[in-house]
Design brief:
Elements lengths: L6 H9 L4 H14 L1 H4 L1 H12 L7 H13 L1 H11 L2 H17 L6 H29 L4 H14 L5 H7 L5 H22 L5 H18 L11 H4 L3 H30 L4 H28 L2 H25 L2 H15 L2 H13 L4 H9 L1 H20 L1 H18 L25
């Protein structure tokens, strides 16, 4: 028997307005910080030209972004689960908006490293707060609502890319960075005014609903207690998912960071290069929404297996069509690879909440998301080095193999069952900042 509780009506009683406004606020914040990940390949050239340095010297900037954005999420999630999202989101507005604005004044490479890393901290805050807002308020629509937020993180960049590529010349990119910094700051501030977490009574009622559904269905009550992060680390399912996360993010971040350079290396025309850069965030955003909704309705584990395997096949197709100079085939392959890679950021948080509960979802998913650090190391610095050793073809094919392995591994996943009673339950969020 499925849980048919009307969570929308219950949330309206708590909030005084529709819970979908929380998703809209989270999506806005995610959209405005998306340039950090998806527009970097379009601004690194003008930055390198202005500083008079070889482009490869900026490769570490993207790697640092991924490390800081991913690594910051566990302490951010731990704090948020206990104190709510508001103060953190206000800090993110200053960090993410201010750092992008100040990039226009950088005169040394180390300044780019520092500013982009500070901005990455702001992006990490926005990301964990936005994703887990969906998990906490939408236990009935995890895949769809995390898909909306993470879609905004990917597709939002499509609104910025034409503006950036049309104006980010060596002489004009300063104004671009400043204008985008202002937009980033204002967008996050608007979200901060709306976002909040459920009170403890919400989680207590949720547990009662799950227990009643289990009793009516004659099954074991899996809702006894949410997993603490220490308990989660003792399950083999977490470590299998961690390996999958590293593999898939490595393949996808390589595609994101290197697609422009790859297209230029195989002598595709400038129009194709621009189209590929613009299609990446759009395909990724739509993929997150579609696969998230399908995983709610069908089977989350099988959705992961299919999605990651198709991502791997798409990367092989990117290489094949790029080598033959087939523009339409190349762009279609980019869309397929990105469409099926990007849902990892919808499917993983959803299955973590399925397996380990929603009350501690921010800290629990943040630990899994830290795998993006290693994926970023591969997608940025390591992939750049591999290209110099074996060439573009083998490098992208290696990414395809990683995605295929993750897809096959997903078939082994299963629920760890109810959380053990051996660890004291952490203090649950009050929904307000202390």
């Amino acid at each position: 028997m499925a849980d048919d509780t009307d969570y929308g009506a219950r949330a309206r009683e708590e909030l005084g307005f529709s819970r979908w406004w929380l998703v809209a606020a989270a999506a806005l914040a995610m959209a405005v910080v998306s340039p950090y990940q998806y527009v970097w390949s379009s601004i690194e050239g003008p930055l390198a030209s202005d500083l008079g340095i070889p482009l490869p010297q900026l490769g570490l900037v993207f790697t640092l972004f991924v490390i800081v954005q991913s690594g910051s999420q566990f302490p951010v999630g731990w704090w948020r689960d206990r104190h709510g999202p508001r103060l953190l989101t206000l800090g993110a507005a200053v960090l993410a908006g201010g750092a992008y604005y100040l990039l226009s004044f950088a005169t040394e490479v180390w300044q780019l490293y520092v500013l982009y890393s500070l901005g990455a901290l702001g992006v990490g805050i926005v990301y964990t707060i936005s994703v887990n807002t969906a998990l906490k308020w939408f236990p009935d629509r995890k895949g769809l609502t995390t898909g909306v937020g993470t879609m905004a993180f990917a597709a939002g960049a499509a609104l910025f890319i034409p503006y950036v590529r049309g104006n980010a010349t060596a002489g004009g990119y300063g104004d671009v960075l400043q204008n985008m910094g202002i937009v980033i700051c204002v967008g996050i501030l608007v979200a901060a005014a709306v976002l909040r977490d459920p009170p403890q009574s919400w989680y207590d009622a949720r547990k009662a609903d799950q227990a009643a559904a289990a009793e009516a269905n004659g099954t074991e009550d899996a809702s006894k207690r949410d997993y603490h992060w220490k308990e989660m680390l003792r399950t083999w399912q977490f470590w299998l998912m961690y390996g999958m996360f590293v593999a898939v993010s490595g393949a996808g971040l390589m595609l994101t960071a290197k697609i422009v350079s790859f297209a230029q290396a195989v002598s595709l025309d400038a129009g194709t290069v621009t189209a590929a850069a613009a299609l990446l965030p759009v395909a990724g955003g739509v993929g997150r929404l579609v696969m998230g909704e399908l995983s709610d309705r069908l089977n989350r584990k099988l959705a992961m297996a299919a999605s990651f395997s198709l991502c791997g096949l798409g990367l092989f197709a990117v290489v094949a069509f790029g080598q033959t100079g087939t523009t339409v085939g190349f762009l279609a392959a980019v869309v397929i690879a990105t469409f099926f890679w990007s849902p990892q950021y919808t499917l993983f948080p959803s299955i973590v909440a399925d397996y380990y509960g929603e009350a501690n979802s921010s800290a629990n998913y943040a630990l899994l998301y830290s795998g993006k650090m290693w994926g970023g190391v591969f997608g940025g610095a390591v992939a750049g080095w591999v290209v110099t050793q074996v060439g573009w073809t083998t490098t992208f094919q290696l990414g395809g193999v990683l995605a295929l392995v993750a897809g096959i591994a997903a078939l082994a996943l299963r629920s760890p069952g109810p959380a053990p009673e051996s660890v004291t339950r952490p203090i649950a969020t009050t929904g307000e900042d202390d």
